[in-house]
Amino acid sequence: MFLVIVFVLQRLGDAAVIWYTFLPSNSAWLRGVALGSLVWTTALLVGVWRRFRWARYLLTSFNWGYITVFTFCVLQGWNEFQPTPTDPYTVLTAGIVLYFGANVILVRSRRVRHFANA
After folding, report:
1. Nearest to residue 70, comparing CAs of 37, 41, 45, 106?
2. Residues 2-55: tens digit of each pLDDT
3. Pick from 57, 66, 75, 54: which is nearest to 99 by CA?
4. Which of 101, 97, 99, 105 is nearest to 48 (CA)?
């Protein structure tokens, strides 16, 4: 059940981040990172489901890197002297928070840990 929750959180986070990357002000490499994440998170979640221990570790470490890349984009965007966050940065922040929630479940859940180590 927890893997389904992680899958849904990551897909919702991907939807938010991919929407942000298709704005005209963003570069193509950012879009590539977001679309690539859609593929590798799904593949690694299948690996966790198939009880490969290394897949859980790799998924959490890749998720931290993904969170870092897009947090940098948020911080860079908020440095443009706007007193309130605009809609694109709010959506991007929501995507980052969803990924963070998925990572917390992957790291802290005993059921996922047991499932991956069995």
Report:
1. 37
2. 888 989 999 999 898 888 888 887 778 888 888 888 899 899 989 888 888 888
3. 66
4. 105
Q: Are 100 and 15 in contact (CB under 8 A)?
A: no
Contact 70, 95 (CB under 8 A): yes
Residues 59, 97: Cα–Cα separation, whole Å: 16
DSSP helix/strand/coil, 107: helix
This prediction's pTM: 0.80
Domain segments of the chain: what residues? 2-117
Do 34 and 116 touch, CB atoms closer than 8 A? no
Q: Which two tokens stand for residue 111?
A: 């059921």
Tokens of 8: 């849904």
Average pLDDT, integer, range 91-106: 89
